[in-house]
Design a protein that fits this description.
Layout: H1 2-20, H2 40-43, E1 47-51, E2 60-64, E3 71-78, E4 81-88
Antiparallel strand pairs: 1-2, 2-3, 3-4
Length: about 120
């Protein structure tokens, strides 16, 4: 009985999500496979990021292992090919990763420049 109640409560949100994430959104995904550097069951994954690290217009990725301490950068060469670089070897027990554009090249949704966050002061 609890499952049925949960199902009927969550169903409208699921339908809205499916409609919002469909092709009408205009977002196009390209699937690609890479040579994965380590086995997650034994080494663990500490983090994953996607960003254009080399500013060539193609999304690159980085993968970190929390046990081996290695950080891999996969440079997207286009056409489904990736070049792997080991960019760190002694980063142990890290919990995750993120990317940040410190040169403020991300498009802004504000009229006053490229901002990630803004603190306003009111008189």
């Amino acid at each position: 009985m609890r499952f049925l109640i949960f199902f009927w409560l969550i169903l409208p949100f699921f339908i809205c999500y499916v409609e919002a994430s469909g092709q009408s959104s205009g977002i196009i995904f390209t699937h690609a496979y890479i040579d994965f550097p380590f086995e997650p069951a034994t080494n663990g994954i500490g983090g994953f990021t996607a960003n254009d690290f080399d500013s060539d217009g193609a999304m690159d990725i980085s993968i970190q292992s929390d046990k081996s301490g290695e950080v891999f950068w996969y440079r997207n060469q286009g056409g489904g090919t990736w070049q792997r670089f080991v960019i760190a070897t002694e980063i142990h027990r890290q919990l995750g990763a993120t990317t940040l554009d410190v040169k403020c090249r991300w498009p802004s949704r504000h009229s006053d420049g490229n901002l990630l966050a803004r603190k306003s002061r009111e008189a």
